[in-house]
């Protein structure tokens, strides 16, 4: 089921939080609404499911205009951050609740509950109460309840926020598996870039109630439209350096970085360079001198901050090996083909 928001506007009293936003989620696609707190992603989700009313624009599920329909008539499944399970009901009854609202017969309900429980791998939990389940198990129940009545669209509002790191990793792959197996159109709201990049076909990165960039995860990471996008994606984050174009090099203090052929005709004067940690290190030669100002060990790799003579900081990610210490001097290079150039006000060059 294709979902379309056209010129969507949302106000709270006299404050316009979203102004004429346009978004299309294709049938069977999983789309992430990604961005910092207050950017409008949850407001958009709550409008799609009918919790908020639109102040302007239209919402379409396929050819059907659902802009003014109440939430119960939109056929959406919603999984909230806190799961919202009924504590007095067992898991079987929690999952069956939407079907009982539809007044289906008991045999049909039992069949559908058994099928969805198998899909989300919880058939042995049906007779337990929510309080007897782990966070990951409760999340599976919430998914099953949202999917059991075969909604046109699945909406996920920060569904992994309450899970520990190991469970988040497991549930990322599980939610994606279930979405692919069912073929349902899904929207994931998250502030976690790893969730968005690992689970979704495309990402709509939002800021101030607007979509700054809409693209596939790899494209957004490698080809950001501005410094906000470049800085939001990536862990460890990208480093930015103030540079001056000097003939065929970027001059960064006493250091020089060769300008890639693809950029040479586009840059002039003052620029801001974006260098991702995987493109700065000894494997790229020499030319950038500085001192190790931070070390973080992550088992198979080490993360370093290198402070340059002008006070700028570059980050580097290196395979674990002989470890450098705080204060050590380094002379490392940059992969100039992967240096991103921006105007001083942040627009991509």
Sum this structure up briefly:
By secondary structure, the protein is of the alpha+beta class. The chain contains 9 helices and 20 strands.
Element pattern in H and E? EEEHEEEHHHEHEHEEHHEEEHEEEEEEE
Number of strands: 20
Gross geometry? elongated
Portion of residues in beta strands equals: 25-35%
Helix share of residues? Answer: 25-40%
Radius of gyration: 24 Å
Mean pLDDT: 94
What structural class results from the helix and strand content? Answer: alpha+beta
**What about the largest sheet?**
6 strands, mixed
Sheet with most strands: strand arrangement: 6-7-8-3-9-10
Q: What does this protein structure show overall?
A:
With 349 residues, the protein is α+β, with helices and mostly antiparallel strands. Helices cover 25% and strands 34% of the residues. A 6-stranded mixed beta sheet has the order 6-7-8-3-9-10, sandwiched between helices. It has a 5-stranded antiparallel beta sheet with strand order 13-12-11-14-20. A 5-stranded antiparallel beta sheet has the order 15-19-16-17-18, with no helix packed on it. Helix 2 packs parallel to helix 4 and helix 3 crosses helix 4. It is elongated, with a radius of gyration of 24 Å.
